[in-house]
Amino acid sequence: MGVVEDTEPPLKRAKRLADEPNGFSANSSVRGSSVNSNSLGDLMARPLTSQGDDETIGSKGVIRKSEFVRIITRALYSLGYDKTGAMLEEESGISLHNSTIKLFLQQVKDGKWDQSVKTLHRIGFPDEKAVKAASFLLLEQKFLELLKVEKIADALRTLRNEMAPLRINTKRVHELASSLISPSSFISHTTSTPGKESVNSRSKVLEELQTLLPASVIIPEKRLECLVENSLHIQRDSCVFHNTLDSDLSLYSDHQCGKHQIPSQTAQILESHTDEVWFLQFSHNGKYLASSSKDQTAIIWEISADGHISLKHTLVGHHKPVIAILWSPDDRQVLTCGAEEVIRRWDVDSGDCVHMYEKGGISPISCGWYPDGQGIIAGMTDRSICMWDLDGREKECWKGQRTQKVSDIAMTDDGKWLVSVCKDSVISLFDREATVERLIEEEDMITSFSLSNDNKYILVNLLNQEIRLWNIEGDPKIVSRYKGHKRSRFIIRSCFGGYKQAFIASGSEDSQVYIWHRSTGKLIVELPGHAGAVNCVSWSPTNLHMLASASDDGTIRIWGLDRINQQNQKKKLVQGSSSNGVIHRCNGN
């Protein structure tokens, strides 16, 4: 290695907040007091969960039974199980809504806007701003419906005498006033523009009311789903070894991944290189793996649907070791960087070299792609940075205050930031738009770095056998540190990986691969198997359970899940300790 320098469910019906039978449909079977305009006692505010308010359920006694039942009832109606929801209300004696709220919702559904506003005020909400906002929403719908039937004078009176005095949303009041000039065109525009209330969207008004009024009054339609999702997310986020898709989470038991979800078993050994393997990288689509070697070649490997890897092309043409190979944003091309030689661009399908990039008198030692794939960048032996378009025309070349060769270089996905090592212990974050520079100053010599997928973090490998994670949004700051791997002479590269890049993996000079939990910095697993320093690792961006490592022993190891059963365990003992799983070897034949 180089040294350092609607097929819905059968019984599911469409959700209909406005059509719930639990309070304002004609065929509701829910028990309750009859509501009429003369029973003021029923209409006045009263506790919304009067039945069983003090009773709790659950082992910890923190769940109010009345709230629990109401949320389940709400979920049943949302799923279209109207009869079941009504039966639950009747059997439990806990109504989803009290009589006043039922009346209010029914009035909204029926378009009785004056009555609904009066009922809203009778409910007695303590938040006056919420009441005003809800009143405005109701009156706006009244205005639109009057406009729809061309009752212009009535619409104007509503706007002038009812909405304007509320003294809120003045901008909207002015928009509605201007609509009186051409009502038909305004109605047409309103009904076809996202975010505007249609004259027929009373259900939309009900949905908006949910956001304005207390949840204890109108329980949000997806409240149960929200509670369950939050519970699953908390379980997922607290799982140290979590490395599965959200679709694998289940409600039937508490979620807890084990170490078996971390790639830790050698699934395949790739042996086509004839000397130390210095670099490797999965393609963005996860269909290929590329590697480069001291043997002056690079290889493109193809990954089948079942995860088996085979040689696709050996890229021959360099006359010195190939220190890096990088995928274009569309995965159709790769760049290879010869050690102080030239940069070559290759076509992935054919394996042909389509262009060479060089500059008289100086040579590249690092390279990268423009985020749009229309140009390349390179760190040169004279400490300068050069940029070319794909045809080799030089676009920019500058040196700046650099005191060492640019051993690593990258550009963020938006093309704004150019990231490079500019001094022994300093990384430059150069804003290409504002032409200003921010610096990350480390305590020791930097050997390599890598950017996270979201370009918000940078992983920095140091000479002192420490890896540091920096947040580079705003002023750079250290987020976490990772220790345990060995590094004294060679360039060792690390990577992000796993579910939402929740893990950090690194090579090591002791022939092992190390994996840490990104957030906690805890070392999770060490993977033995190689017979030489592990120079580089890469985690598949599409297969959470595939990790690749490149070594001075001339091999690439593909790591997968540890699914060894008793029979394989016996085979492992027979085969000896050189492997920690069932091995499939590939030498390119």
UniProtKB/TrEMBL annotation:
It is found in: Cytoplasm. WD repeats lie at residues 270-311, 315-356, 527-569. SMART domains: CTLH, LisH, WD40. GO terms for cellular component: cytoplasm. Residues 1-56 are annotated as: Disordered. Interacts with RANBPM. This is CTLH domain-containing protein. It comes from Arabidopsis thaliana (Mouse-ear cress).
